[in-house]
Amino acid sequence: MSGRTALVLGGTGMLKGCADELLAQGWQVVLPSRRPPRAGTAARAALGRPGQVPQSRTEADSQAAAEGGRWVRADWARPDELAERVREVLAAPADLLVAWVHPSYREPVLRAVAPLLAPDAPVVEVHDSSGISSRHGLPDPVLPGHPTQQVVLGIVRHGRGTRWLSHEEASVGVLAAVRRAVEGKAPSVHQVGDVDTWAARF
Ligand SMILES: NC(=O)c1ccc[n+]([C@@H]2O[C@H](COP(=O)([O-])OP(=O)(O)OC[C@H]3O[C@@H](n4cnc5c(N)ncnc54)[C@H](OP(=O)(O)O)[C@@H]3O)[C@@H](O)[C@H]2O)c1
Predict the structure, then answer these.
(1) Does domain 5-201 have CATH number 2.60.40.10?
(2) Is the CB of residue 30 less than 8 Å from the CB of residue 94?
């Protein structure tokens, strides 16, 4: 792999649009997850062009590599193995880490991949507001040696109800933080949608 490389943890679900956009901008994107990305543009990058059905995992991998995206099978429950799988596909240290990782795995996974990052690589940590304690507020960045933009995904109010952010809204919000990260802006907290429980704390 060559060019700027982004490691995107949790980038095959709600944040697939974020991974897609990074690919569109010419980034090499490494996507560790338990299952391959599903249909869509990131899936296209990872599994081949529309209408082309990869004949084998090897073929899928080589198509993905040719198009700048590389999916690797990995589980947050085994952080060292995840880091090793990522290391195998990186030609050079990663220039950006985007991490949408469940709080119970966040620290061990981010610490495991830290040695794979360029020394000045920024980090974008994405949090779900419902998982943030109202007593303790937003956790500190896991990798303080890397400038970290924090994103908190909230909810959207409509009428008397609420809904999740759409996948697009979440990806657009995370991409705004990625832009700040890549531009070398000071670490900050980005709120996407409404956040009730802990907003007063930051
Ligand atoms: N505030 C909000 O708006 C908000 C917040 C949370 C959720 N939601 C909604 O709820 C839906 C489901 O949420 P979700 O939390 O499942 O997020 P998601 O972004 O849809 O999927 C989670 C991502 O993390 C990966 N992942 C999960 N467990 C993993 C593991 N053990 N090891 C490696 N990778 C892992 C998944 O890939 P694999 O499963 O293939 O491993 C996927 O890439 C979302 O699609 C969204 O619609 C909304």
Answers:
(1) no
(2) yes
